[in-house]
Amino acid sequence: MQTMLPSAPCLGGGGKINSLSWKLLVAGRILLVEDDPQIGDYIARGFAEEGFTVDRAANGRDGLFLATDSQFDVVVLDRMLPGMDGLSVLKALRAAEVETPVLVLSALGSTDDRVAGLTAGADDYLGKPFSFAELFARVQALMRRGSGRQKAQDTVLRCADLELDRLTRQVKRGARKITLQPREFRLLEYMLLHQGEVVTRTMLLEAVWDYHFDPGTNVIDVHISRLRRKIDDGEEQALFHTVRGAGYRMAAD
Amino acid sequence: MFARAMRQRRLSPTMLRLVAAVFVLQLLSSAAAIFFLRTQMLDVVRADREDQVIDVRDDLLAAFYSGGRGALADFIRDQRGSVADPGVFVTLAGGGAPTLTSNIDFVPAITPGPRPQAVLVRRGDSATEQDALVLASTLPDGARLTVGLMGASERRFNLAFAAAIGLTIAVAVALALVSALVLGLAISSRTHEIAKAAEELAAGNFGMRLAEGQSGDGFDHLRLQMNQMAERIASLVAELGAVSGALAHDLRSPVTRLSAAIDTALARVDEPGAVEALQAARADADGLRAMLETALEISRLEGGAVQDRRVQLDLAAVAADMVELYEPLAEQSGVTLALDLSPAWIMADRELISRALANAIDNALKYGGDAITVRTHAAEGEALLEVADNGPGIAPEDRPRVVERFVRLDNARTRPGGGLGLSMVNAVARLHRGRLELGEAHGGGLAVTLHLPA
């Protein structure tokens, strides 16, 4: 698989990011454990188109065997599986000290089920129905968590000429000082920690506001566009990018 | 909570009537017992006195048979033995000798008989006649021996009885009152126990069961029936859960596939018309997904199939957070979103309360006017969370309807939404044992108020 630098997207040359560069940057190996053949096909095809290698298992036992046997960047695990259910697979994996990031996918999308999934050792939880863009963004986030952890310790986060100082809570774009409200600061901080990645509205709502439901309206979009005006207005280079059908991405390309 | 407990402790009119009835019955039975006892005791006293009279007569007869008339006369004159008792009087008349009396001035006119008879006699300087038991016997020599006993002891018994009866009545009244209250409280507590079970059922705890007794009384019957009812409800709810679970699985997967298919298509077409159509389809698929999610969430909430994640929280803080989330959207839509917060602490699930509040604010943004106020305050025993707008409001007759699932009023049909917003708010309120109130705001708009028990 490709290795990449944490700040790789920001180092990319100008212009629109194309799918080829995505493939080079993030492609990896995914294990998909899903019993519904159609959903499995869609997910697998989606990842394949983004340049991922996808291994598939249609039941829990095979999934557990594959996951313990070979190295994957991320395991996408359906919760309701024939033979051995997803949470048991997950517990068995963690008991065997396999630390591969696991995203649990489930038709049981309620908060209770999400909490149960996370307690069982899942790194993320996504309720069905989901959009592929959401799944893709979350898988990417899991793959980059290692570099994100490194970044999480930095006191100053940068993207191009944007600078956010987490100690003094000051934000500068070049020489221009930007005043942010506390929530805007956290929103920008999150975007910078995940720069180069697609961040979905749900991810933002969970991380910045700690809500695990979909308010239905475009509340997050308005917050982003407000922040975007403060950061990008009057600048030559836009750092905020809207990813159609998925969410946002912060990058200097 | 405290006020409620007080209400439960106080006796209701029904209970008061029951307690009063038990009290009166207790009192009546006590009175009956006392008077039965009195009659019995009087009989005993009377028999005792009759025996006493007969004993005196027998003593005198013994004297007569051992020494003849002379010995008897001496016995009477000297007031020997039982004749010495001042309550006893004796007369001996006829038989050819002078009449002899002791403790009395005349010979009572009474016919001889085997048992003493009650008569009225006047003795000495006494002004009134008094009860006496008198026994007359004819001696073998033809003389008549009359032996009497004054009724003083019966009067004394009556006096003693009267003194005792006061105390007895006081004790009986106290006992009747205590037993009535104990019975009342026992019934009340048993009824409360059963009512509490019903309350749990209403709150969605269908696993509750009452301990069934074997005595087969009315309470046991009621408990048994309650348990059977709970079982039936539990099985129905489980069935419903299974159905909605199956529905979830059956509907969610196709919707996921639909979204995925649209995404795949979107990634492959460049023709603007096609992109636009696909994006519209995408938005609808998302709407469908959200509706499905919300409908299932409401089912879960109403079925009580939710883990208890309640913590002590301040509604004001929850409201402030949510308003902060919605404020930019409101501003963009030209709506002012105002806060009027005072602390209101309750035990609640932050996520669910936030979700309910988001639904209420969303509803106000869609159908309300251009000013929304989110208010929290603590009232007597409850915490209130209110979202008021200055829109057209909802007519009072329509208010109960809009809380139902998928009900949308005519003016809302053209707007996006699934008619689930207020149902969700209602479900959250009920899960917290509170209620949703739809009323009129100050400016004539709609006021959505969550009343949550503190």
Automatic annotation (TrEMBL), chain B:
SUPFAM superfamilies (UniProt xref): ATPase domain of HSP90 chaperone/DNA topoisomerase II/histidine kinase (SSF55874), Homodimeric domain of signal transducing histidine kinase (SSF47384)
Spans through the membrane: 159-187
Major place of residence: membrane
EC number: 2.7.13.3
Gene Ontology molecular functions: ATP binding
Pfam family, any one: HATPase_c
Subcellular location: Membrane
Record Gene3D superfamilies: 1.10.287.130, Histidine kinase-like ATPase, C-terminal domain
Domain Histidine kinase, residue spans: 246-454
Keywords linked to the UniProt accession: ATP-binding, Kinase, Membrane, Nucleotide-binding, Phosphoprotein, Transferase, Transmembrane, Transmembrane helix, Two-component regulatory system
Enzyme class, spelled out: transferase
Reaction equation(s) it catalyzes: ATP + protein L-histidine = ADP + protein N-phospho-L-histidine
HAMP domain location: 185-238
Name recorded for this polypeptide: histidine kinase
Native organism: Novosphingobium pokkalii
